[in-house]
Amino acid sequence: MAQLWGGRFTKETDKLVCNFNASISFDKRFVKQDIEGSIAHVTMLAKQKIITNDEKDIIIKNLKDILDETLSGKLLITEEYEDVHSFVEANLINRAGDAGKKLHTGRSRNDQVALDMRLYIRDEIKTIDELLFNLLSTLLKIMEDNTDTYMPGFTHLQKAQPTTLAHHVGAYFEMFKRDRGRLADIYKRMNLCPLGAGAMAGTTYPLDREYVAELLGFDGPTLNTMDSVSDRDYLIELLSCLSTVMMHLSRFSEEIIIWNSNEYRFVEIDDAYSTGSSIMPQKKNPDIAELVRGKTGRVYGALISMLTTMKALPLAYNKDMQEDKEMTFDAIDTAKGCIALFDGMISTVKFNKEVMAESAMNGFTNATDAADYLVNKGVPFRDAHGIIGRLVLTCIDKNKAILDMSLEELKEICDVFEDDIYDAVSLKTCVDKRLTIGAPGKEAMLKVISIEKEYLKNNCIL
Buried (b) or exposed (e) across 309-333, using 16+ Cβ within 10 A? Predict the structure, then answer.
């Protein structure tokens, strides 16, 4: 097929060069956005009397037909075309004749692809935001159901202090909430329309860029035509945000993997989100969590690739920028799949509450509270710290938790201990007396849950 730009050339492009240069294999997913942008463009051209209203109507009718037939599968996007823009324009000319040849008036493929990418990314940001909203809704339900589910909190992967499952899951709620905020920031910053920038210096046609921006739901036109066709900052920001989302998913997946182990037994992953072994019949593997953890590196790779592609490009458009698409598409598809699968997995996980509470007790997570007990009885903190350290050693020797020690055994270590020690270092007391906002105490946790409910009532932040 002859190239739409072939007038300057005296012989056909080498087949290998043509294949290397083409982007149709991946930018065909832009067909909806390309036609949406073209409809807005010709509507503006007619308004500005650059084309007639009759020509506009013919073009728009045929563009809509091309889109309908493409989406239904009746019209195939084949690799005889260089890119999706060539596919649309060539099919339009075949149907609309000379009117179709006027579609590209006042427009370059440079500002056209810049527009398509922004329209596509806007749609994808909305989809990703919806997936994160659904995940947050799942996490909030777990929080609501588990304000009294006691478990060990960890630092350095060592049991530290008692907390609740609601509190632990609430930490991830905050992470994914921040991710939604980052998406909203990106959306706001990128929501300017590059169409009308031309190849890099605008056009002599009297285009109304503000009108096109309004038709396409942008906040306005971009303000520098060179930057319009060479800006990929919003893609770098999106890939950075997706990398952060994946990092959060990976951290949570790692904990699910640990909690699913025989040594922990904190959770049981639903059969629908587990796999077995081809040789070991006893195995039930957390493959979904492991794949989410593994695919994080794939999204990181897209971010580094994009930064590397852009790092030394002079103004304005360069063909290197065609490399932005495949890596961005893959990162978006990967992140969306991981969010959805993780949401399904965590919503069906069974939490072994008794095992979690027992682990908190046997891990001496109430040792700090035992030291505080002595301090409240008048023992200097440094002395209390040493006393509880010796108590823990004694418990380890006797294979007991602090609450399993008799009062006589406790008094052998420090005669300040009284019967009230057992209530003072129970998991419920240790957790519930932590009442500052953000702490795991039930009263504080219920306040936070109420705040998060209000946050989720505003479904859309874009």
Answer: bbeeeeebbeeebbbbbebbbbbbe
Q: Scanning the structure block, which residue is given the tokens 């390309």? A: 34
Question: Could you read off the pLDDT of 379-401 as tens digits, one per residue?
Answer: 999 999 999 999 999 999 999 99
Tokens 């294949």 found at: 19
Give first-to-last CA distance, the chain, whole Å.
Answer: 42
CA distances to 162, 282, 290 from 278, in Å: 39, 10, 18
- pLDDT for 281: 62
Q: Which one of the listed residues 156, 274, 305, 450 is annotated catalytic?
A: 156
Report the Cα 306 to chain-centroid distance in Å.
17
pLDDT digits (tens, 9 = 90+) for 186-213: 999 999 999 999 999 999 999 999 999 9
pLDDT attached to residue 391: 94
User: What Rg, from alpha-carbon coordinates, does the chain have?
Assistant: 31
| Active-site residue (options: 277, 278, 305, 450) | 277
Beta-strand ranges (E) seen in 285-437 are 350-351
Distances (CA, A) of 116 to 86, 238, 258: 13, 16, 43
Dig out the tokens for 201 from the structure: 């210096």
| Strand 350-351, strand 267-268: pairing | antiparallel
% helix, strand, coil for the chain, step of 5: 65, 5, 30
- The strand ranges marked E within 115-204 are 150-155, 158-164
Q: What is the pLDDT of residues 7-19, one digit of tens each?
A: 554 555 566 665 6
**Which helix H or strand E contains 338, and what residues bound it?**
helix 324-348
Residue 375's alpha-carbon distances to 88, 386, 387, 428, in angstroms, are: 78, 12, 11, 20
Q: Are 109 and 94 in contact (CB under 8 A)?
A: no
Q: What distance in Å separates the CA atoms of residue 448 and residue 171, rounded to the nearest whole number? A: 11
* Catalytic (active site) residue 385: no
Distance of alpha carbon 130 from alpha carbon 376, whole angstroms: 49
Question: Could you tell me the pLDDT band of residue 23, with boundaries at 50, 70 and 90?
Answer: confident
The dihedral formed by the CA atoms of 105, 326, 320 and 13, expressed in degrees to the nearest 10? -70
Tokens matching residue 278: 């081809």
String of b and e for 294-307 (b: at least 16 CB within 10 Å)? ebbeebbebbebbe
Q: Could you tell me which of 181, 169, 183 has the C-alpha nearest to residue 128?
A: 183
Secondary structure (H, E, C), 220-275:
CECCCHHHHHHCCHHHHHHHHHHHHHHHHHHHHHHHHHHHCCCCCCCEECCHHHCE
Token pair 């920031």 in the structure block, residue? 185
**What is the β-pairing status of strands 267-268 and 158-164?**
unpaired
Q: What are phi and psi of 328, to 5 degrees?
A: -70, -45
Chain CA centroid to CA 62, Å:
37
Annotated catalytic, 305? no
